[in-house]
Structures are given as structure tokens and as C-alpha cells.
Design brief:
The chain is mainly β and 101 residues long. 0% of the residues lie in helices and 39% in strands.
Amino acid sequence: MGKIRSKIVRWQPSETPDVTYRLYWATCRPVSHNLDYADVGTVTEVTLPDEIPLFPLIAGKIVLGVSAFGPSGNESDITTITRDIDFTIPGAPRNLRVEDT
């Protein structure tokens, strides 16, 4: 298994007390409430891809978004950012050998 350099995604907390957060992601389109997401609880940062097992291990432009959920289950607008990422692992060297000199 290769090693992937992680990225930390941080955001300022909602001014509304007692909220939890949801992280959204999308490629080739804006994020919306109908796309892939992970509920991350009350934290204001996550490490990608380590803390989100469903996060895609891809390279290219990705749109990330975060929304807040209030105690009654209502959800805020999604705050977004678009970034280039690379979570792909290069191919390993092959045919390793040891030879006498």
C-alpha cells in the first residue's frame, strides 16, 4: 500500500450554537445537498483522505463544501472551495534485485 500526503480542510465555526457539520465533495460540478458527503460532527477541521473513508482517491479539480446542521435538523447553505488535489499513488518500481559485483 502506498502513502498519500494528507490535506487538512478547516473552516470557521457557525455562529449558531450546538451545530454539527457535513462535508460535501464533487468533481466536474458544483456541490449540492444531493451529492456525496460525510457527517463530521462538531469538529471544524478534517484530514483528507484519512478521516473520510469514502473520499475518492483521485487527482484533479475537486469542489469541497461544508454545511451546518442545527438541533432541529435544518441545514445551512453550503460554503465551498475549489482546489486541485492529487490523492493518487504512483506506480512502484519493479524488478528489484541484488547482484554480485
